[in-house]
Amino acid sequence: MRPFLHKPLWMLWIAGTGFSALALAQTAPIDPALIAKANVGDVAAQIAVGDAYAQAPGRAQDCKLAADWYAKAAHQDNIAAQLHLATLYRDGCKTLPRDMAQAAVWYQKAAAQGNADAQATLGSLYSMGQGVARDYNEAYFWLDLAAHTPGAKQPQYAANRQLIGTHLTTDEVEAAKDRVESWRAAHQRSQK
Questions:
Q1: What is the dihedral of CA 115, 120, 125, 131, to 10 degrees?
Q2: Which residues of 38-49 are buried (b: 16+ CB within 10 A; e: fewer)?
Q3: DSSP code string of 68-132
Q4: CA distances from 51 to 24, 71, 148, 155, 164 (A)
Q5: What percent of the chain has pLDDT over 90?
Q6: Cβ count within 10 A of residue 75
Q7: Tell me, what DSSP letter sits at residue 177?
Q8: Residue 190: its pLDDT value, please?
Q9: Model-level pTM greater than 0.85?
Q10: Distance CA 139, CA 146 (A)
């Protein structure tokens, strides 16, 4: 006797229904109204379409398309889009190879706008030489900027900065601190 004949019919029906639902879910379209808004340059819509492809609720994940949509918003200087794009390049996926150099470019853009998480990540990339040449002076600079930003991660950024400082001379640390103060002064003026 065949084993599948021992299963109740309702179990076979559910298994069949589940398979059909899964097949339908993989082709769920993105809301055309959202795509229309994204196509005319709406940053929030561009990020949402990127999220739809990256997170793939109900469809096959496509990080390449996600990156394309995030890039449209990122080129409009949107920090969230720059961070999404950097993360995609940092992690890679089936449809988008890992590219640490591109990740560093997008973390740099978000960091230059004052995002502490991007500054800390960029500092870490410089300390490890991932996507950028290893440079403890740059690592210290970016981590010091991040450590000056109040927030839950501030102590962690300060600890990482101190660790990187062990690779620098006293003069190099002072030069980095002077650079941080100049950067902060210039950015405080531009934000007023």
A1: 0
A2: beeebbebbbbb
A3: HHHHHHHTTT-HHHHHHHHHHHHH-BTTB---HHHHHHHHHHHHHTT-HHHHHHHHHHHHHTSSS
A4: 20, 12, 31, 31, 34
A5: 77
A6: 14
A7: H
A8: 52
A9: no
A10: 11
How far apart are alpha carbons 9 and 1 in whole angstroms?
A: 16
pLDDT score at 27: 54
What does the mean pLDDT of the chain come to?
A: 87
The pLDDT of residue 19 is: 37
- Scanning the structure block, which residue is given the tokens 């040449």? 133
pLDDT of residue 60: 81
Q: From the CB of residue 10, how many other CB atoms can be counted at a distance below 10 Å?
A: 8
Question: What 3-state DSSP class applies to 46?
Answer: helix
Token readout for 27 is 């082709």
DSSP string covering 158-169, please? HHHHHHHHTTS-
Q: Which two tokens stand for residue 126?
A: 């410089």
Q: Which residues are 96's β-sheet partners?
A: 93
**pLDDT tens figures, 67-88:** 999 999 999 999 999 999 999 9
d(CA 121, CA 146): 9
Residue showing tokens 């340059």: 41
